[in-house]
Amino acid sequence: MKISVIGCGYLGAVHAATLASMGHTVAGIDVDPARVDQLSRGAAPFHEPGLDELLQDGLATGRLAFSTTAAAAKGAQVHFLCVGTPQHKTSDAADLTYLVSAAEALLPHLAAGAVVVGKSTVPVGTVDMLRRVLRTRPDVLLGWNPEFLRQGTAVKDSLVPDRLVYGVDGGRAAAFSPQTGAPTGVTAALDTVYEPLLGAGIPRLVCNFATAELIKSAANAYLATKVSFINAVSELCDAAGADVAELSEAMGMDPRIGGRYLHAGLGFGGGCLPKDIRSFRSQAAGLGVTAVADWMRLVDDVNLGQRGRTVTLARELCGGSLAGRSITVLGASFKPDTDDIRDSPALDVADRLAAAGAHVTVTDPKAVNHPWRRYPRLRFEAKILRALEGAELVLLLTEWDEYRQLSPGVAGALVRRRVVLDARNALDAAAWQSEGWVVRGLGTSGTVPAVVGHLPGPYASLHPSLPAEALHNLR
Ligand SMILES: NC(=O)c1ccc[n+]([C@@H]2O[C@H](COP(=O)([O-])OP(=O)(O)OC[C@H]3O[C@@H](n4cnc5c(N)ncnc54)[C@H](O)[C@@H]3O)[C@@H](O)[C@H]2O)c1
Q: How far is the CA of 86 from the centre of ligand 1 (A)?
């Protein structure tokens, strides 16, 4: 098939290269000339394992090409819209401006009966809105095929996805011929696109537009809920003198719960999860479903609160004031295995520490080629050992393998004080402690308080720290 992919960022570049690897002829289109130039040379414009190779293979076969002009989409049977849908500047809602301009640019180049399929993460009602943009072309078929790839494993996720979701007009009932049961319209077109994946047994779910539009946001809302749940519990662990790492490990062994996304720490960031839960909240509020809206607000608040907790703990570890302290922050990207710093919790914390007067040096194995002038208070040092020199406090804020494997002995010889705040609960605390380090984490450092709860009468007086009300209940 000839296919166009409009928007070649983290999602589109990987999608275009994956489709070419499946044997399709793919035109990748992006308005950013520097990005197109890099992609055309077979170099991913961001760090994504395996993408350079996939791009180079596609370019070498002649089946993959990149362009800045929408005219490159001419002749394609299927067009995938993969542009960004960031949070709106003045609200929690998704900004659909890029989607509208991509569809408008595509309009003059659409062949008769072409199929236009969105992959971006969008709010309910987006397909109806796009239908209005394309109203002069009633012959064009619209579909929604949300994408679930994760940065850092995007190539693998695209080549072997967990599932394919097709949102089509009329939903499942309208997707197959009543006579033969064969797929029709958008479903048939997408089946052809994804034939190798379907052949390999990847499940495909067909649903209506509203369901397809909601699935990705709901999935991200659930993952965010899991992270914020364990982070809220980590605060409880600190108050109770429990260890959240041991607690979550035990919880995760229950197959109904599962251990993934149940790791307490600094919380999530990046270009997707935060804006997706806010868009989900805004959609729920708009549709009058306040329980979901309130829920998402709490998840967001807990997540952002972890950044404040980390700064407070850092201040404590510096003796009550950050002013003038030399602090080294390990990690700038929003998570390991990517150089993406969009809404990075690590950079947010680093910047807050610097705002409180600390001298902050940030290091990261990959996120080194960014416009750091946006963070004039921070000093960047690509080499980790140099970044550690003279530190009075080390913060692990992004759990790169390089930092997990860092020798506490080597690091200890470089710093001024052996104190580390492991805000990702990723280090081998015992190994670091044995080298003389003080190790603190989120939810792993509390001291055991007096008993909290109902005690049988005779014992109540042994616990003067119990609130009077609790004592009253015991008598
Ligand atoms: N990044 C992820 O891991 C991921 C995963 C699943 C879904 N998504 C969703 O995919 C969408 C894209 O995310 P991303 O991370 O790739 O964003 P991104 O910012 O990396 O890429 C968007 C690209 O679209 C280009 N663009 C903007 N307007 C354009 C236009 N009119 N024509 C052509 N190109 C245009 C931009 O120049 C940019 O290169 C979002 O809705 C996101 O939520 C992202």
A: 9
